[in-house]
Amino acid sequence: MSKLNPKQVENLTEPGTYEDGDGLRLVVKPTGRKSWLLRFQLAGRRREMGLGSFPEVSLKKARQDASAKRSQLSDGIDPLAARDTERTAQREAQRASEAKQLKFETLATEYRDAHGAAWSEKWRKGWLRKLELYAFDHIGKLSAEDIGTPEVLKVLQPIWATKTRTADEVRGQLEQVLDAAKSRNLRTGENPARWRGHLENLLSRSDKKKARKREHFEALHWREVPALMIKLRAIESAPSKAAQLLILTGARAHMVRFAQWDEFDLVAATWCLPAERMKMRIAFTIPLAHGVIDLVRSLPREAGSSYMFPGQGKTGVMHANAIRTLLHGMEHDHITRHGFRSSFRDWAGECTHYAREVCEMALAHDERDQTEGAYSRSDFLDKRRLLMAEWAEFLEQPTRNVGN
After folding, report:
1. Which partner for 269 in 9, 123, 288, 383 could form a disulfide, CB atoms 3.0-4.6 Å apart?
2. How far apart, in whole angstroms, are the C-alpha atoms of residue 118 and residue 124?
C-alpha cells in the first residue's frame, strides 16, 4: 500500500528516507536533493537500484518504473543487469550514429592532419590529392563502417592494371585511414584494404610485381646518408627511430617492422633473428654498434606488446608505409627503404677493405655455394662487428670527407 502523496513528496525537506511501499522509497539528502530508490532481493541478496531524481521523475513515474522492475524480477530478470544492457545498447547506437556522420573524406583529412606534422607541404597536399582523384568519388561520402571489400575494389580496379603503383599507394592510404577509424571505434571487423591474405587474392599480383620492376628508384648516395641521419635524429617519432635502425643495421624493412624486444641482447650487442623471420629461412645475427644500442634504449616499451614498433593494425606492428611516408614527407621521394642497403654496400665497397663475403654477409647475403658453405661455417660475426661499427661512426660524421 502506497504511503506517499504528490504534495508530500514536493514539500519534504527533512533529510531522511521515506517509504512508499513494496521497496520504493524517497531519499532526501541534506542538500535538499531528492531521489528515488528501489530495494529488492535477488538470489537471497538485497539490492538497491536508483530510479532517478525528483522532480524529473514524479511519484507516479517512480511507481510505474518500480512496478516494471518488480515484473522483471518475477520473470527471473535482474533489473540492474537489464538496465546495464539497455545502456550499452544505447551507447552503441549513439556510437553508430556518430560514426555514420563521419565520412571517409573527413577521416582521411583528419588522418593527414594528425600524422602530417613531419611531412613537407608538398607531400601533405599530394597525399590527399591521390585520394581526391581516385577514392573520394567512390567512397568519400561513406562512413568507415560502410566501406567493405566491394567498395575498396571500386576504387582500385579501374586503375590497378594501368596505374598499378599509384593504385597500390592509394590502397595503402585506405588501409591506414580505416585502421585509424577502427582504433577510434568507428568501425569493426577486418580491414578491407589489407593486401596480404585478402586483396592479393582479388587483384593481380603480377601487375603489382611488374609495376615494381618497371619503376626504378635510385638509392641515396652513401655520402648523403649521414645528413639524412641528422634530420631523422631531430624527429622524435617511431617511424624515424625505425628508419635509423634500418640504416644503421642494413636490415630489411620487414625485419625492423617486426623487431621484437627479446631478439635484442644489449649486453652481447647482438640482434638475433630466428629463421622464420629471415628471407632465406636461416637464423641470422646482426652485431650492434654503440649507437644502435643507444637507439634501442631510447625506444619506449608499450605494455602488452612484444614488438619494438607496435601498431594498431592486424599485424600489431607499425604500418608498412610508415617509413616511406616519413621519407616522402622529408622530400626524399626518390629513395626507398630497401635502397639504404645499397647505400651501405656501396660505402663498404668504396671506403673499406673488408672482403666481399664479409660485406655481403652483413646484408644476410651468403654467396658461398653449398660445397664451400659446408666447409666454411663462419658467419664473420667479429669482422662484421668491426664493419658495422665503422658504418655507424661514418654516419655520425656527416662533414667528414671520405674517399676521393
Report:
1. 288
2. 9
Of 214, 248, 271, which residue constitutes the final position of a domain? 214
- Alpha-carbon dihedral sign for residues 135, 141, 147, 149: negative
400 part of a folded domain: no
Give the number of C-alpha atoms closer than 13 A to the C-alpha of residue 82, restricted to the C-beta side.
12
From CA 6, how far away is CA 1, in angstroms rounded?
15
DSSP state of 222: G
Instruction: Count how many domains the chain has.
Output: 3
Cα 380 to chain center, whole Å? 37
Under 8 Å between Cβ of 20 and 1: no
- Residue 403's nearest CA partner among 360, 361, 348 is 348
Question: Is 402 contained in some domain?
Answer: no
The pLDDT tens digits of the residues spanning 186-236 come to 888 899 999 888 998 999 876 555 544 444 445 788 999 999 999 999 999
Write the DSSP symbol of residue 16. E
Where do we find the cell 635524429? Answer: 233
Residue range 19-36, pLDDT digits in tens: 888 888 888 998 889 898
CA dihedral 138, 141, 145, 146 (to 10 degrees): -50
Residue where one domain finishes, among candidates 69, 99, 129 = 99
CB-based burial of residue 194 (10 Å sphere; 0-12 exposed, 13-18 middle, 19+ buried)? Answer: buried
What gap in Å lies between CA 113 and CA 162, rounded to an integer?
30
Side chain identity at 176, as an amino acid letter?
Q
Please state whether the predicted TM-score (pTM) of the whole model is above 0.70: no
